[in-house]
Write a structure and sequence with these properties.
The structure is a single chain. The chain is mostly beta strands and about 150 residues long. Helices cover about 5% and strands about 35% of the residues. It contains one helix and twelve strands; from the N terminus they run βββββββαβββββ. Strands 2-3-12-7-9 form a five-stranded antiparallel sheet, with no helix packed on it. Strands 5-10-8 form a three-stranded antiparallel sheet. Strand 2 and strand 3 form a beta hairpin. It is globular, with a radius of gyration of 19 Å. This enzyme is involved in nucleotide metabolism: it produces dUMP, the immediate precursor of thymidine nucleotides and it decreases the intracellular concentration of dUTP so that uracil cannot be incorporated into DNA. Its EC number is 3.6.1.23.
Length: about 150
């Protein structure tokens, strides 16, 4: 396992992102809010974290929902997984909603999402006239019967 140096500014009242266990892939991010926020089904909210980062080129930060909040309260990220690019210098915000009918209360300092630092490749796109044939072909969206 290789550690990646990430420069960070913390303008929040809460700790730096931290890993809950030695085996955790995601570091917890905290809701940097002054008072409770209520999430309602179908409404989209932006939760500030007070965190700003600088990633090395070739890395991204993936912002992911916390599984416990998703299972117990239907709290999810609107964009599935958020991507923080290496050249972004703004505050990390969490775009969030709840899927349940019951409102969900976000409290100041609550662990609201997790951040996974991931290496990625840059594609070199080459335009062609045809692609090679495969057994699967154009099959998708349940083509295997599952």
């Amino acid at each position: 396992m290789k550690n990646v140096k990430v420069e960070i500014i913390n303008k929040s009242k809460y700790p730096l992102p931290e890993y809950a266990t030695i085996g955790s892939a995601g570091a917890d991010l905290y809701a940097n809010i002054d008072e409770d926020m209520i999430l309602r089904q179908g409404e989209i909210s932006l939760i500030p974290t007070g965190i700003y980062i600088k990633l090395p080129v070739g890395y991204e930060a993936q912002i992911r929902a916390r599984s416990g909040l998703s299972l117990k309260h239907g709290v999810t990220l609107v964009n599935g997984i958020g991507t923080i690019d290496s050249d972004y210098r703004g505050e990390i915000g969490i775009i969030i909603t709840t899927l349940k009918n019951e409102p969900f209360r976000v409290t100041p300092g609550m662990k609201i999402a997790q951040m996974v630092i991931s290496k990625h490749e840059i594609a070199e796109f080459t335009e062609v006239e045809n692609l090679d044939e495969t057994d699967r072909g154009k099959g998708g969206f349940g083509h295997s019967g599952v």
